Amino acid sequence: MLHIAVLGSIPDLLRLVAVPVFGWAAYRDVKTRRVPNRTWTPLAVLAVVLLLWDAYTVWTGPTAVGQRLFFIRVAISLGFVIPLSYGFWLIGGFGGADAKAFMLIAVLFPAYPVYYLPTVALPLQQTAVGVFSLTVLSNTVLAGIIYPLAVAAGNLARGRFSLAMFIGRPVPVKQVTAEYGRLLESPDGFDRSGLDLDALRMYLQWRDCSLADIRADPDQHRLPTSLPRVPNDPGDGSLATDGGDPVANDVDKSGGDDASAQAVADNTDTIDDPWGAERFLNDIDHSAYGTSPDQLRDGLEVLVEEDEVWISPGIPFLVPMFAGLVVSLTYGDVLFSLLQMVGLA
């Protein structure tokens, strides 16, 4: 039997724990679009310990040049990648799990790790800057670019032509509540800011009905008087909880404060609130993923009129991030190689 040894420093070998963790997180992101916070805690502790370990080793090392390079790379990784990830989260470009994962990469991989195989050392392609978290970031972006190209190619092959063909796919309306993503349609046509499907599931659970019920009698469901006296807990819109079970409805529909419930019901007779969109968003104790009453109303109007709609399933960002991490640890920096090929690096 052939045994191939993979050698490197102890901290670099311990950093490989990130690969299965990110692989599992990417799988969870695909299946549920939810990654538990506890996923990152052990890896974050390990990252801090390894960073301090490396800092001590370098600080007590023989060369001042090596010390300066290491601490410059740490400063760039922590001072650039972490604020960048946080900024993208603030503007909605990243989900919470995506931002946490990139912040973790910044701490865990500030400088290039090295793994010695019998005939070669990995990663193969390093950069002049030598900040490994930037390599993971650039490889993740490149991996993410492949997604819309693949989506467009699939739509072309199936003869689907639309303004949404680079970012979405058509699905039957009856399947919408079993999908993750966002509607790409409004009553006026193509709309990249359509209704979030998690918010749709929250709304349906809140008013205790199905999309089929609404489509069967949209005129009745547009009326505020059709709303339940005691709405349900909307949940978080996920198709499954962390345990893989359907999101439970823990509200007793027959209970509640009868006086307050009747007051709410009486109030619905006098407000101008088609579909109860404003009441839903005011009633829940958290945001429905930034959904506005108009987005919810427009989305429902589309879903009761059409039999097929375009949705953007989006790409769970942890998937290209996992791919970017694996490519970075093996090949190295793809963008730097491309720039070298054209004489720009």
Automatic annotation (TrEMBL):
UniProt KW keywords: Cell membrane, Membrane, Transmembrane, Transmembrane helix
Residue stretches spanning the membrane: 6-27, 39-58, 70-89, 101-118, 130-157, 317-339
Preflagellin peptidase C-terminal domain mapped to chain residues: 298-334
Disordered: annotated segments: 220-271
Membrane topology: Multi-pass membrane protein
GO annotation, cellular component aspect: plasma membrane
Pfam families assigned to the protein according to its UniProt record, in alphabetical order: Arc_PepC_II, Peptidase_A24
Keyword Membrane carried by entry: yes
Gene3D superfamilies on file: 1.20.120.1220
Prepilin type IV endopeptidase peptidase domain ranges (all copies): 18-147
Family annotation (InterPro entries): Preflagellin_Peptidase (IPR052218), Preflagellin_peptidase_C (IPR009655), Prepilin_IV_endopep_pep (IPR000045)
Location within or outside the cell: Cell membrane
Chief localisation class: membrane
GO molecular function: aspartic-type endopeptidase activity
Protein name as catalogued: Peptidase A24
Lineage: Archaea, Methanobacteriati, Methanobacteriota, Stenosarchaea group, Halobacteria
